[in-house]
């Protein structure tokens, strides 16, 4: 167990809807990154939050947005869901200045 | 986009055999990490090797890094059925916790 928890574990949404995924980071970790993992692929970096500010974004459209709260927990929001958004969404927290990331178990999102 | 490629994409071996996975990457790095993923769930950090290191050991794991060839290998010795998982290399080209992953190697270890 990494101490990083994500909710929900599974989710089914309809195309066009909006979804919010949640992540509780490990104690003391003020950096949280979100990754999208399509079936059979490696995770792809979506964005990172550090001290409640976005600190870098991968190649994802603006309908992917996030928040980080004072307790370092985080949310990933996806608007106008598309079928291709179906994937495992992973949250990873890390200590300041550390390269090792601690991953949660992920949220499996299915868009129908 | 994916940073690198893992080779092979899939590997099937018997318990007790060694498993070797290779990873290539494209840009300069500060370090390279290997992660393990069971059945499409969360990733677990295995080992980190810095760009100025050539080899690192952790238990039954041995990692090598060749920055001139932009490649790394992960060796799992005396494999066990519990080692069955997908293994990913990840580079830090994006910065702290902005990892760039390869597509992974799916390892199956048969009893």
Structure in words:
The complex is a heterodimer of chains A (112) and B (111). With 112 residues, chain A is mainly β. In chain A, the strands form two sheets. In chain A, strands 2, 4, 5, 6, 9, 10 and 11 form a seven-stranded mixed beta sheet that branches. In chain A, a hairpin with a 5-residue loop joins strand 7 and strand 8. The model of chain A has no long low-confidence stretch (mean pLDDT 94). Chain A has strands spanning 5-7, 10-13, 19-24, 31-37, 44-50, 53-57, 64-68, 74-78, 87-94, 102-103, 107-111. Chain A is globular. Chain B is mostly beta strands and 111 residues long. In chain B, 0% of the residues lie in helices and 54% in strands. Chain B is built from no helices and eleven strands. Chain B has strands at 5-7, 10-14, 19-24, 31-37, 43-50, 55-58, 61-66, 71-76, 85-91, 100-101, 105-110. In chain B, a hairpin with a 2-residue loop joins strand 6 and strand 7. The radius of gyration of chain B is 13 Å and the shape is globular.
Topology, element by element:
The complex is a heterodimer of chains A (112) and B (111).
Chain A: E1 5-7, E2 10-13, E3 19-24, E4 31-37, E5 44-50, E6 53-57, E7 64-68, E8 74-78, E9 87-94, E10 102-103, E11 107-111
Parallel strand pairs in A: 2-11
Antiparallel strand pairs in A: 1-3, 3-8, 4-5, 4-9, 5-6, 7-8, 9-10, 9-11
Chain B: E1 5-7, E2 10-14, E3 19-24, E4 31-37, E5 43-50, E6 55-58, E7 61-66, E8 71-76, E9 85-91, E10 100-101, E11 105-110
Parallel strand pairs in B: 2-11
Antiparallel strand pairs in B: 1-3, 3-8, 4-5, 4-9, 6-7, 7-8, 9-10, 9-11
The termini of chain A sit apart by 31 Å
Helix content of chain A: under 10%
> What string gives the helices and strands of chain B in order?
EEEEEEEEEEE
Radius of gyration from the alpha-carbon trace of chain B, in angstroms: 13 Å
Number of helices of chain B: 0
Beta strand % of chain A: over 45%
Main sheet of chain B, how many strands, which sense, barrel? 6 strands, mixed
The SS-based structural class of chain A is mainly beta
Proportion in β-strands of chain B: over 45%
Instruction: Characterize the overall form of chain A.
Output: globular
Cα distance, first to last residue of chain B? 36 Å
Which two chains share the most extensive interface?
A-B, 34 and 27 residues
**Unreliable runs of chain A:** none
Name the poorly predicted regions of chain B. none
Q: Tell me the series of helices and strands of chain A, N- to C-terminal.
A: EEEEEEEEEEE
Give the strand tally of chain A: 11
């Amino acid at each position: 167990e990494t101490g990083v928890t994500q909710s929900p574990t599974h989710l089914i949404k309809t195309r066009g809807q909006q979804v919010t995924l949640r992540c509780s980071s490990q104690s003391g970790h003020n950096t949280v990154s979100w990754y999208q993992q399509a079936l059979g692929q490696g995770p792809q970096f979506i964005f990172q939050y550090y001290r409640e500010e976005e600190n870098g974004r991968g190649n994802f459209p603006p309908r992917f947005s996030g928040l980080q709260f004072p307790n370092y927990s985080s949310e990933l929001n996806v608007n106008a869901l598309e079928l291709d958004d179906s994937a495992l969404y992973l949250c990873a927290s890390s200590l300041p200045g550390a390269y090792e990331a601690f991953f949660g178990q992920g949220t499996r999102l299915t868009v129908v | 986009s994916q940073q690198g490629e893992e080779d092979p994409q899939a590997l099937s071996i018997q318990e007790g055999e060694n498993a070797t996975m290779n990873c290539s990457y494209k840009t300069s790095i500060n370090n390279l990490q290997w992660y393990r993923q069971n059945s499409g769930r969360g990733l677990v950090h295995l080992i980190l090797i810095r760009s100025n290191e050539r080899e690192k050991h952790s238990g039954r794991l041995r990692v090598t890094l060749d920055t001139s060839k932009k490649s790394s290998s992960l060796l799992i010795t005396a494999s066990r059925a519990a080692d069955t998982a997908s293994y990913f290399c990840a580079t830090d080209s994006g910065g702290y916790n902005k990892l760039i992953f390869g597509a992974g190697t799916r390892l199956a270890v048969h009893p």
